[in-house]
Write a structure and sequence with these properties.
Layout lengths: L8 H19 L4 H8 L3 H10 L1 H27 L3 H11 L24 H21 L7
Helix pairs in contact: 1-2, 1-4, 3-4, 4-5
Length: 146
């Protein structure tokens, strides 16, 4: 294995590979296997760079945040258009503190067998809340850039 010398040939080659990987990650919206293939780099090399190079990891994190922003923007457009499934997905991911979770069990006082409120009751309540929020979002003017 070649000896690592700061600023040496091996380090320069690694820097070039990292730059190629970052460009490919941007082109392929952060999808690692596609980016590695496009950059001619094995995925294990990508993960090694990610673990050992703080600047590379930061750049990858920034790319991923950019992709998340794009996806959230598309998700919001779908929600404002009245699409139910994207709205449910968003609430389950972002509104857990408000009770929007995949499965919720509510214990009733005096309930000896600890049975929960049926999912159908929770689903009806959730659908009503979702419809109110959809109407509110639809009446909100879009922000710049949407």
């Amino acid at each position: 294995m070649p000896k690592q010398v700061p600023g040496g040939r091996v380090e320069k080659e690694a820097t070039i590979r990292k730059e190629r990987l970052l460009k490919a990650l941007k082109k392929h919206n952060g999808l690692i296997s596609f980016a590695c293939k496009a950059a001619g780099t094995h995925p294990s090399t990508y993960y090694e760079y990610l673990a050992k190079d703080e600047k590379f990891a930061q750049a990858v994190g920034e790319l991923k945040e950019g992709v998340i922003d794009i996806v959230e923007s598309c998700l919001m457009k779908s929600i404002k258009a009245g699409e139910y499934v994207p709205a449910m997905f968003y609430l389950k991911c972002q509104a857990k503190k408000r009770g929007f979770i995949e499965k919720q069990e509510i214990k009733l006082s005096g309930d000896k067998d600890n049975s929960a409120v049926p999912d159908s009751v929770v689903s009806v309540a959730l659908a009503a809340i979702l419809e109110q929020e959809r109407k509110r979002l639809a009446s909100t003017p879009p922000e710049d850039g949407e």
